Amino acid sequence: MLGVLAVVLVALSPSFGRAEPSGEYRPPLPPDALTTGCYPLPDGVELDFSYQVRTDGDVRGRRQLVIQYNLIDRDEALRAVVRSFTNAGFAVDTRAAAPPGDEGAVRTFALARDEETVTGRVIPMDPLTDDQIVRGTIELSLPVVARQSDDAVCFDVESTKRFSEAEQ
Amino acid sequence: MSRGTRILLVLVGLHVVAKLLLFTLVKDIAVCCDQVSYDDGAKALSNVVRDLVGGGPVPIAELQRNLVGGGWFTPGSSIVLTPLYIVDPDAGTTAVRAYLGVFSTLLLLFTALRVRAVLGDLYAGILLVLPGLVPMYLLFSFSAWGDLVAGLLCTLLLMELITLMRTLVAGEAPTLTQGVRFGLAAIAAVYARSSTSLLVVGMGVVLGVTALLLLRGRVRWQAVLSFGLAAVTFLAILAPWSVFASKTLDARVLTTTTVPIVMANTFGDRDRVCFSPCDPVQDPGSIRGNIWFPPMQYSREVARATGESEVVVEQQMWAYTRGSITPNSFAADVIDNFWRYAGIPASFARLLIPADAEGGAAYWAIVIGTYAGWAILFLVGGSLLLTVVRRSTDHQVISLVTTLALGSLFTQPFVHVGTGRYWTTAAPLLAIALGLLVVLLDARRANPRFAQPSATMEPATPVAVDRWLTVAQAVLAVATVVVVAAVLVLGLT
């Protein structure tokens, strides 16, 4: 009897409408901060290696952008990030206050394009195994850039990674 | 009708009345937290049924997002809720709470019947009181968290195990039906909560080893066949989930994906979980306002940037974090987790009663009743872990397998941040332990009131079996003391 009722209810179920799951436990992944145009890199600069933005924000008149690089090693990451800027017209900054040098496993660089200056530190993960996907961090100090749009995504800190500004 | 039956019926009546009273508190409380995931999974599953019946394309993406998600949960609770959404796709909070309440009561009654058949009236009666009348247990029985249901299914599995052990001790082979039943109970428990996996595997090992030690010749082969069928049943039902979850997440997923992130968040240095601190939790208090979402989103970001599976990324996050763990930090975290596991049984009350009831008479009745009931269960029932029962073979079997079941559930604080709802899984097993201790105390009296559950097998039991059962219990008791002492010494120094 119960079995018959169950079969009838299942057979009729398409006519009852559809359930609407919320999907809240699998939220959409916010877009990569450097692809939205909200806070772009200096004009013409594009990172051509695998990375994810960890934090972004302005500190004492400079933009501090922290990204992690994947799948490549420190020296290749250093070459790649420097190339991303030199391809856009940046060159080694001879006016930099202290000449960039190596600090232990960390590699540093300083670049400039007219009045725009960029410094960076490339820091490998420790420990670092052969098959590790996330292999290091690049800390970039950049000219401050204003928010370029009022789109909702530019206020979504899970995309912009500007957490410290959200707290203020 | 016997006196025992009458008492059990009264207890069932009290349970139902208590549930009806608590339903008035929980009926309008929207599902929160992990329940949202189970609820979404059920809705997606109901749409799959609908589309299969209607001949339309099956909504795979919807199912992947809502049933599998990040692979955090096995789908048992979603499956339980699915029939409701098949009949009423727009079912509201009250319908969901009522449905879950009826389901859990039916499962409790079914479990009590099985316990009665296998162990007798006393055990069934204790189960119906502790945890059957513990207020938070009743409130949880209206929730979609799978922990409570998993506990009852583990108890059903334990009854299958005890029955099978009796068969083996008597030198007989289990039937094929017994094998299938064991496999079904085992997979049902894992579907409800993957945290029961160790218990389930442990029970299977106990069974296999016992059969190989006790049986010879043709009977042994029959046992192998029966347990083989149990394993096939288990794997055949696990496979669809494992395959679907693995395909969804592009990684090998057996039950869930949670271990790496859980271990990293529980024991690792949180400043390193995302190869840096993870993103701060957004909107604490919202559905996603907990420490589990930032690591998942991070692993998905890395997966997006590299084409690797997020599950593999999560495994590497745990590997990167665990270097910071020392024996002392691990033990200190275990103590903290155990406290959360066993020391705050009413902490979820505020998620299951109206805000304006908090602090009122009903709230305090729930809190006090829960602490009292749980304290008896945990302290008295839990003492079985340290007890070596020598009375009869059957008592020894019950003691050994219940101790093993409890011991495997109590490993949870060693792998997971504790919360005030995991105790609902252990509660019905502690009721069995409590029942055994009551029977043993009663048996010391001149005129024991509770009859031996199965005295008939006693004469046939070889002395060696008794001795091994005693040794096994003693080993478990010593192991418990050693582990507890080690954790306390390391964690508190």
Gap between N and C termini of chain A: 64 Å
Number of strands of chain B: 0
Number of β-strand runs of chain A:
7
Biggest pleated-sheet summary of chain B? none
Mean pLDDT of chain B: 94
How many whole angstroms does the radius of gyration of chain B measure?
23 Å
Q: What ranges of chain B have pLDDT less than 50 throughout 5 or more consecutive residues?
A: none
H/E topology pattern of chain A:
HEEEHEEEEHH
Q: Would you tell me the overall average pLDDT of chain A?
A: 92
Describe this structure in words.
Chain A has helices at residues 2-12, 74-86, 157-160, 163-167; strands at residues 51-55, 58-59, 62-70, 91-92, 107-113, 116-124, 134-143. Chain A is α+β, with helices and mostly antiparallel strands and 168 residues long. The radius of gyration of chain A is 23 Å and the shape is elongated. Helix content of chain B is 69%, strand content 0%. Chain B is built from 19 helices and no strands. Chain B has helices at residues 3-26, 34-54, 60-68, 76-87, 93-119, 121-129, 135-140, 147-169, 176-192, 197-214, 217-249, 259-267, 293-306, 310-321, 327-342, 361-382, 393-409, 423-443, 463-492. Chain B is globular. The N and C termini of chain B lie far apart (59 Å). The mean pLDDT of chain B is 94. The interface between A and B is large, with 41 and 54 residues.
